[in-house]
């Protein structure tokens, strides 16, 4: 009975790397899996600080995030599963159209929200790189969900030591709370 347990344990242990590989962009999965993970993390604000940006590295083919002057505030994002909606370049490269429901943008320099409700389509080019799907382009400004943006502004307001900047952040937070998704 004991050798059977060891064998079972060994089989479970050996299968773990396969699960990890499947979770990190394996070509066995649809390329939409990578795009969905990326836009979901972006919606949660993962690109808003250097530490959380590291969570996006398994999904992208660039290493540096540009400094953005604005953050796009969204209510929803849709990634099509149906390959007929993609542009199939070849077996190892596709372009997937992602639709964002945009509410407006927060401009970081002035801490101002400019409402601009629209539907934005961004075409993500996904390619096989070292046997894993990776987003090659485009590198777009952060697209953060409204609730998360409100939380980020509140957090910045609480950390701010300058009273005037704190007031401006409080006003921005109040403006964002009034936005209807």
What does this 3D model show about the protein?
The chain is of the alpha+beta class and 181 residues long. It has helices at 2-23, 31-43, 50-53, 146-159, 163-177, and strands spanning 70-78, 87-90, 93-107, 112-129, 132-137, 143-145. Strands 1, 2, 3, 4, 5 and 6 form a six-stranded mixed beta sheet that branches. The termini are far apart. The model is unreliable at 1-23 (pLDDT under 50).
Please supply descriptive tags for the structure shown above:
single chain; 181 residues; alpha+beta; 6-stranded mixed β-sheet; 5 helices; 6 strands; 38% helix; elongated
Short summary:
The protein is α+β, with helices and mostly antiparallel strands and 181 residues long.
Q: Write the element-wise H/E pattern from the N-terminal end onward.
A: HHHEEEEEEHH
Low-pLDDT segments: 1-23
Summarize the main sheet. Answer: 6 strands, mixed
Helix tally equals 5
Task: Compute the separation of the termini in Å.
Answer: 59 Å
Estimate what percentage of residues fall within beta strands: 25-35%
Indicate the radius of gyration in whole angstroms.
20 Å
The share of residues in helices is 25-40%
Q: Would you report the number of β strands? A: 6
Secondary-structure-derived class: alpha+beta
Shape: elongated
Mean pLDDT: 87
Topology:
Layout: H1 2-23, H2 31-43, H3 50-53, E1 70-78, E2 87-90, E3 93-107, E4 112-129, E5 132-137, E6 143-145, H4 146-159, H5 163-177
Parallel strand pairs: 1-6
Antiparallel strand pairs: 1-3, 2-3, 3-4, 4-5
Helix pairs in contact: 4-5
